[in-house]
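In the present case, backbone shapes were mapped to integers, as reproduced here:
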Amino acid sequence: MRMHISVGPDGDYRTIGEAIQAAHYDSDVIIEIAEGTYREKLYIEKKNITLKGAGPDRTVITYSDGAKDIMPDGSRRGTFRSQTVFLSGEYCEIRDLTIENGAGTGMEAGQALAVYADASRVYMENVMLSSHQDTLFAAPLPTSVRQPGGFFGPRMLNDRLHTVQYYKNCVIKGDVDFIFGGADAVFDECEIIVCDRGEEINGYITAPSENLGKLGLCFRRCLIHGQSDDMAGTVFLGRPWRPTGRAVFMECRYDECIHKKRFSEWGTVEAAESEAFFAEYRPTDMSGADIDIKDRNPWVLKLDDSEAKKLNDIADSVIKRVIDK
């Protein structure tokens, strides 16, 4: 059974949270969200649910929780309770809206997730995700925690779920480790914007952890650039949150913000080796000219056509798993 629910001044419900509560778990649910700004912290756990806005510049879901917030018991909120939207259940589709965390910079607020994506299958198209540190968590969590209580939140005691996720024509904005986690996640034709922190190192786009599948974080034909023109060489494509993290960038375009070493070890720029799988294929500059990545860290792979085809085939199979109902 398919349910259609509308949200807005003239809709079935005035808030998105009310609409989600009204949706039957086993139904195929489409929630149409009218233009407006919705200050809501959402938990979504349904079998098959779609949230559709009026456009990223017209429908905005926003909240402002940060990891440094002090809770009533005196503890800090922590990373994994800071999210504006938590996705769980079997299938979540989100289209044509913005999800943001307005808590502020990492120095001010700590980690501040826009989305904690832990549904079995996640599909986003024409969505803007905006924060600073840790914008998008593409779950699962790593298998072990480094700091006591570091995973405190919705999934800290659960078995790790192998999720598959697809982001198409999205805009993702942040600075430190702002696309991170252990999902098999494909990003096609997305725009990745790195905020200018005014630091020697302005950010790390990805921070992959252990991966239960065969892909990790895969970016194809994306546009990747700094927020300002004064960021040359201050951004890394990623660093391993856990030693076996996987991230690959294929046929992406970059401005001058990317550091010549391309990827960083966790904690130091000058590391000579890494267990992580970090790779690129046919990077180009903003004019479409090839970028010479000869100064990359020695453990960063430059893929040939055959290797790229194998990864593209795996990425296509991930997308098929996401969108096949």
Summary: The first helix runs from residue 16 to 22. The chain has three helices and 25 strands. The chain has a mean pLDDT of 95. The CA atoms of residues 272 and 298 lie 7 Å apart.
